[in-house]
Amino acid sequence: MNQMKQKLQCLPAIVHAVQKKFVFLIISLVMALPLVSQAHWVPVTGLQVGNIISVAFDPGNSANIFAGTDVQDIPSTTGLYRSIDAIETWNQITATSLTGRAIRSISISPDNTATLQKMFIAVAEQGIFRSTNNGNSWIPTQIEYPVNSRMYLTQNVTQVIVARQQGTTQKVYAVVSNDEDGNPNSAGIYMTTDNGANWTLVYQSDDVKKLLVHPNQPNTLYMATVTSGELLKSINGGTTFAAANSGLPTGGAIVNIAVDPDDGSRVYASVFSSGVSGFYRSINGGTSWTKTNDLIFAHIAVSSSDAVEGRLYAIRNESPVGGIQYSVFQSADDGVTWARVSNDNDGIPPETTLSTITVDQEVVYVGGDSGLYKYDHNAGSITDPTQADLSLSVSATPVSPQFNENLTYTLVVENLSNTRDASNVLVTSEALPAGMRLVAAGSSSECSYDTSTNRISCSANSVLKVDGVTFTVILRLPATVAGNQINARFAVTSDNDDILDNNIDQVNTVIDDGSSTDLVASNSAMVVNVGSTSVSDTLKASSSVHTSVTYIITNNPSKGSIEFANGDIGQSNIPNITYTPNQGQSGTDSFAFMIRSPDGHESNVATVTVSIKGTVENPTGQEDATTSKGVGSGSLHPLLMVLFLIFMLRRRLFA
Questions:
Q1: C-alpha 512 chain-centroid distance
Q2: Residue 73 lies inside a defined structural domain of this protein
Q3: Distance of CA 629 to CAs 7, 203, 634, 635, Å?
Q4: Residue 103 in contact with residue 138, Cβ under 8 Å?
Q5: pLDDT tens readout for residues 434-488
Q6: Does pLDDT of 583 surpass 60?
Q7: Nearest-5° Cα angle at 12, 7 to 13
Q8: Can you tell me the distance from the alpha carbon of 354 to that of 335, in angstroms, rounded to the nearest whole number?
Q9: How far is the C-alpha of 332 from the C-alpha of 303, rounded, in Å?
Q10: pLDDT band at residue 511 using 50, 70 and 90 as cut-offs
Q11: Could you read off the pLDDT of 16-32 as tens digits, one per residue?
Q12: Kind of pairing, strands 550-555 and 560-564?
């Protein structure tokens, strides 16, 4: 009876164990099946294990990938895996020291060549191992305990990093939490320059949460601490560290940090602190920090700028305290805005605990307790047929409007999916300049403009597959935008497509300050009659902006002269130009002018035509001693002299 009772008591445990192995077997079989319809996140086939905690790409060959697991239910499946054909096939590296052990960290040398393929890994309970032949064979590189050289630090190596080679020296860093006995004196940052033959404790601390190495400066390190919640920086290979916290909240916790793989001065930190938690960015190597978003992320990865500069990926647990609901987020603007790029039905099973994220150009890998998953921006084959695929393009006309004119935004949303309509489509803008006013919103759906937030919003119940919708929004530009640029950024989402790959667009519009086109000089005509010494008139010009301008003569008259005085536009009763014809001139003359505003803008050139009626003999009114004297003035008129000579000649001939 007692034996039967004992067997019944053991039955629940036996059933639980069988169920667990059965579930694992089912997952393995499902992952091994070919994908009939791929989702945004594709399970990596061939890697028949779960609990992926470390992933690394070969910097010189992205088809060469390594993945490490945590302890598995089946010990023989725990260890290091390698794919040399871009994850098409995987093989477990079955070295005795690696099998059955968790692979906590993988680092591949950025200076590998075809003949030297160096990498280091941190293995739980075994220490650090080195390979120089792409993982085919491994050599242990034990870190000696600083106090007693007969002891080795094996169990608590949490991170290993191979720095870029400088000259003939290549540094490798390792983070050790403590020794087997929990002694904090052995914890800290270790460094080797001879491929692990000798390790030196360069910085002693049991408070190292994560270490980063500058991609091009092997002596520059960034370190996040555990209990003090600080971010520290070293420029001498870890010998000394200084605070690099300006702009970061105090009294909180650094959740995780990341560095740009191309620009080591760009560093990112996820911080938890009461009231000021969020995502922070430094563009000057930690000298100062700026908060860009309120979200907190457990893991961060930065894409190479060869793909898209400023594109980041991160893992976040969105479940309430104690729950599991991990999601992957993407930022395309250097951490300012974030969009979720994983959902319950996007290929990653719900309640998967994600523990690592790695990005190589546009290909992203996340690992967790249900396996390894891939997301490729450039591969159209991974589009989920159950999802819509929206894209957005924005244009604005006129290209260079003036203030007090209308600016028309045209928003074109296309659904590129050939299998699924998009439902509850929403196009929204970021905040536009204050003072804009909605003139009209004509489209096949509804648009509005919120004057309290200065945002455009357009919605449609649906956008059919392989179809689109166009929204038109006309806004009146206020005078306050004159001479500025409006950078209007729009995004489109729907209930079944919040993957913001191509769903964001921006149009930049330069607003003319109105000065050049507002200044107008007009053609006009003047008439001067014989007997008049000059004529005065007002040049024709206009401006609705400037009350005072400068008149510029661009071409002088040829038959006369002008006296010119600056004046104010609008005072048409005050002459500001006087034309005086030259002596003996008649016919048509002309001159040209323009106006210039105080800010240096100029109008068009206008022509003033002058008609001179008759012949002007003496425009000044003064007598000419050679042309105006009469007969009795002491000299004879030339015609009288001729007649007198003819008379005298005839008289002599007939005498």
A1: 25
A2: yes
A3: 153, 115, 9, 8
A4: no
A5: 888 888 886 555 888 998 889 999 998 888 877 888 999 999 888 778 778 888 8
A6: yes
A7: 90
A8: 20
A9: 10
A10: confident
A11: 444 444 333 333 333 33
A12: unpaired
Torsional sign, CA 427, 433, 434, 438: negative
Whichever domain contains 572, its CATH number is: 2.60.40.10
pLDDT at res. 651: 66
- Comparing C-alpha atoms, which of 299, 251, 247, 257 is closest to residue 274? 251
pLDDT digits (tens, 9 = 90+) for 75-116: 888 899 999 988 889 999 988 788 888 999 999 999 988 888
Question: What's at 356, amino acid-wise?
Answer: T
Confidence check: pLDDT of 383 > 70: no
What pLDDT score does 333 carry? 87
Query: What CATH number does the domain containing 192 carry?
Result: 2.130.10.10
For tokens 């729950």, name the residue: 323
Structure letter (DSSP) for residue 272: E
End-to-end CA distance of the chain: 191
Q: Going along 23-95, which residue ranges are E strands?
A: 42-43, 52-58, 61-69, 80-83, 91-93
Closest CA to 490 of 456, 519, 521: 456
What is the tens place of the pLDDT at every residue in 56-68?
999 888 889 999 9
d(CA 43, CA 366): 10
Which tokens go with 323?
């729950």
Q: Which of 306, 302, 313 is nearest to 264 (CA)?
A: 302
Is pLDDT above 50 for 430?
Answer: yes
Query: pTM (2 decimals)?
Result: 0.56
Q: Is pLDDT at 560 greater than 80 in this prediction?
A: yes
Consecutive H or E run containing 412: strand 406-415
- CA atoms of 217 and 125, how far apart (whole Å): 31
Please choose, from the candidates 229, 237, 231, 95, the residue with its C-alpha nearest in 3D space to the C-alpha of residue 174. Answer: 237
If asked whether residues 504 and 521 sit together in one domain, one would say: no
198 and 61 in a common domain: yes
- Tell me whether residue 417 is in a domain: yes
With 80 as the cut, is the pLDDT of residue 184 above it? no
Name which of 331, 379, 343 is nearest 496 in CA terms: 343
Helix (H) or strand (E) holding 3: helix 2-32
Residues 506 and 519 in one domain: no
Asked whether residue 7 carries a pLDDT value surpassing 50, the answer given is no
User: In which element (H, E) is residue 424 found?
Assistant: strand 422-429
CA separation for the pair 628, 196 (Å, rounded): 118
Residue 540 and residue 404 share a domain:
no
Instruction: Tell me, yes or no, whether 418 and 458 share the same domain.
Output: yes
DSSP 117: B
- Cα-to-chain-centroid distance, residue 564: 55
**Coil, strand, or helix at residue 253?**
strand
Sign of CA dihedral 279, 284, 285, 286: negative
- Predicted confidence (pLDDT) at residue 517 exceeds the cutoff of 90: no
**Pair of tokens at residue 86:** 């871009």
Domain count, the chain: 3
Going from the C-alpha of 7 to that of each of 3, 17, 19, 422, the distances in angstroms are 6, 15, 18, 57
Q: What was the pLDDT predicted at 438?
A: 87
Domain enclosing residue 178, as ranges: 48-206
pLDDT of the residue at 305: 62
Determine contact, residues 257/231, Cβ cutoff 8 Å: yes
Question: Stretch 299-314: mean pLDDT, rounded?
Answer: 80
> Can you tell me the mean pLDDT for 122-138?
91
Q: Is 316 contained in some domain? A: no
Residue 650 lies in a domain: no
Distance between CA atoms of 222 and 214, rounded to whole angstroms? 8
Count Cβ atoms below 10 Å from residue 482 Cβ, excluding itself.
Answer: 16
